[in-house]
Write a structure and sequence with these properties.
two-stranded antiparallel ribbon; 5 helices; 2 domains; 25% helix
């Protein structure tokens, strides 16, 4: 059995109809701290979202936007980097899958993300947390990261390429 989500905000399916229901969710301090640990952040100071929930063809669609304020460490220097994220989302909460489709299908860029619900409620908090996880820069770099690396003797891609070595042989810039 999986652990409970750090940031759970459940909305009953019975309370969501074809007329959009506007909702707002925000993580408290303990939830932000738990999510920061989950995603390897130095800190998560704010996580909130607003969405319109609508029943569509047997599923629930959430359209909205997530806002976050977080601090990560630069991968090169370790310096703290404060980041503000504002990400729109469109998530379709589907009933649990009872069978696996045998044929392949492709999604295009206009298709929304999909998550299963438990038949009773959707968890918008966990959906927002997953949206945050997908929005975080995996390799954040401070503005001076290249200079710090160069001073430490680490070559950048341009300096380490075969063409850079050839340039060095012929003394051309």
């Amino acid at each position: 059995m999986s652990a409970a989500p750090e940031f759970s905000r459940r909305f009953a399916l019975a309370e969501i109809g074809t007329v959009p229901k506007h909702v707002a969710v925000a993580a408290d301090g303990a939830e932000c701290a738990a999510l920061a640990r989950r995603f390897g952040l130095a800190s998560l100071d704010l996580l909130s979202a607003e969405a319109d929930l609508t029943a569509v063809s047997g599923a629930i669609e959430a359209r909205g936007a997530m806002s976050a304020r977080l601090t990560q460490s630069c991968v090169a220097t370790g310096q703290p980097l404060e980041t503000r994220l504002d990400e729109p989302f469109r998530i379709r909460f589907e009933p649990p899958v009872t069978h696996v489709a045998e044929e392949e299908f492709e999604l295009d860029a206009d298709d929304c993300d999909a998550m299963e619900h438990d038949g009773q409620a959707i968890d918008l908090g966990e959906a927002v947390a997953q949206t945050l996880g997908l929005s975080i820069d995996l390799f954040p770099r401070a503005p001076n990261a290249d200079e710090v690396l160069r001073a430490a003797g680490v070559l950048g891609e341009a300096d380490a390429s075969p063409f850079a070595k050839l340039k060095g042989l012929f003394g051309k810039e």
